[in-house]
Amino acid sequence: MNGFGPRLREERERLGLTQRIFGDIGGVEPNAQGKYESGERTPRMDYLAAVASRGVDALYVLSGVHTPAPLDSLTSDENRLLGAFRRLPSADQAAVWHLLNRLAGEEGGHEGLRMRRPDRQAYFHDALR
To answer: Where in the chain is the domain with CATH 1.10.260.40?
Structure first.
């Protein structure tokens, strides 16, 4: 999503909150909340701090970049999966990204990890043996 307002709305909807409740959390009226989400107005820092304390990813709202999950919050399975992924050669990492995107129903692949056509053919040929 482009722009502060749409990202703020996306976060509100992700949390399952109405504009009225979200505005209450931030200390503003629902019409102000609507203007923030439409981009007509910019909220103050105390508003952002209040909604961030209730689960909003403030970095994402401000910059469009999600806050990375701290490594200590990973489950043991997630940690093992990440370690195994990092040990893979880049062509295999690209294949894993492709598979994950297909399973998750997402279009495209992961930026920077595209398999070259010969690598894909060799990988899938080996996988079918």
So the answer is: 4-63
Own/partner contacts of 48-52, CB < 8 Å, gap of 24 or more, are 50/25, 50/26, 51/11, 51/22, 51/25, 51/26
pTM, entire model: 0.56
CATH of domain 4-63: 1.10.260.40
Report long-range pairs for 25-33 (Cβ below 8 Å, ≥24 apart): 25/50, 25/51, 25/54, 26/50, 26/51
Residue-wise pLDDT for 15-64, tens only, equals 999 999 999 999 999 899 999 999 999 999 999 999 999 999 999 999 99
Query: Dihedral angle at the C-alpha atoms of 79, 102, 88, 128, nearest 10 degrees?
Result: 130
